Amino acid sequence: QGAHIIVTPEEGIYGWFFTRETIYPCLEDIPDPQVDWIPCTDPGRHFPPEHEEKRLSCEGARAVAQAAQRGCGVSFPGDIQTPPGHGPWFDFFSNIFSPSFLFHEQYKLFVTEKQFNYPKDPEFVTFNASFGYFGIFTCADILYHDPAVVLARRLQVDTILFPAAWGNTLPLLSAVQFHSAWAMGMGVNFLSANTCNSTLEVTGNRISVIQKRKMVTFCFLVTELHSCPCLSPDYPAVVNWKLYASCIEQLPSNDHYFSGVVYHVLFSFMELSDPEGDCAVCQQDLRCHLSYKMAEEQEDDVYVLGAFDGLRIVEGESYLQICTLLKCKSTDLGTCGQPVETAQTKFEMFSLSGTFGTNYVFPEVLYSGVQLATGEFEVM
């Protein structure tokens, strides 16, 4: 159909393997990107003639697909139980076929991937095309300054290509929320190919394209993008969230805080006891402020304003500051933070802001264009 870019999900070639033993038959002897080799025209030089790399290289588009590399100078079979950094080197990385290839070695791994290896230093992989300037990283890399922020801010790529396998379940809907919010916060097009595996709760935005603060989600997507979204005259200006929150009148201290856990981290919460008003909740250096007005308040719906400021040690370590407006599962405040499937209360308006200690602020859900009030919300 004339596509210029094809992005496949994480583990897209060989499936979902999570041990050094099971991935052993899939390991590739990938030549260095500096090697002048086009798999399509010389398929037998490094791989068997009918290898996947040949097919991808012959697609006529830049195809992004992930493979695992066999370490240099390693003879097999070897001790495939050896911990990372010793013995066989199993790299996860993404090839880019155009029609030759270069690759990005995944820099940050989740806990379940720590049996594999990763490069000592982050790599910043980019390539130019007639239709834009592209960067690539994989899955957990998006959560860290290197390489994700560097590609978007310092190298100023137009579009990020992102093979991923992200969970997408309540209460966070992680993939839908974070990927769209990250793209808006960074001002780039974001082509996210997310694995679909309902048994692993890896569902949701299989391919997402973010442009001009809009998001579309399909299992398979063919679309046209503005090659330089941040240079477009109608692209919205960046919002200074910290400045906005700092200008709001300081509210008196509130002693009605309580704690609750959302996705393994401990939030400070305050109940919205009135149908409209202004409130604030603090945790360490973070102050979250909410202005709101409920149009139709339901007795069985309890909402809270929450703040989290600290180190999150789940599937790796990341320092986060989060302001959230969320519905509790029941009128029991002890359920606040648990997954919620339905809500009846309608908000006429709300404005949520925080005194964040960083310029990298990612607004999620409503600001991304997701309409919570329309249609049914299905839990997969």
Here the CATH topology of the largest domain equals Nitrilase/N-carbamoyl-D-aminoacid amidohydrolase
CATH top level label of the largest domain = Alpha Beta
Helix content, binned percent: 10-25%
Query: In this structure, how is the largest beta sheet organized?
Result: 6 strands, mixed
Strand order of the largest sheet: 5-6-7-8-9-10
- Low-confidence runs: 73-87, 366-380
> What string, H for helix and E for strand, traces the elements in order?
EHHEEEEEHEHEEEHEEEEEEE
Question: What's the Cα radius of gyration?
Answer: 23 Å
CATH superfamily of the largest domain: Carbon-nitrogen hydrolase
GO molecular function, one term: pantetheine hydrolase activity
Pfam family, one: Vanin_C
Protein name: VNN1 Pantetheinase
Family: Belongs to the carbon-nitrogen hydrolase superfamily. BTD/VNN family.
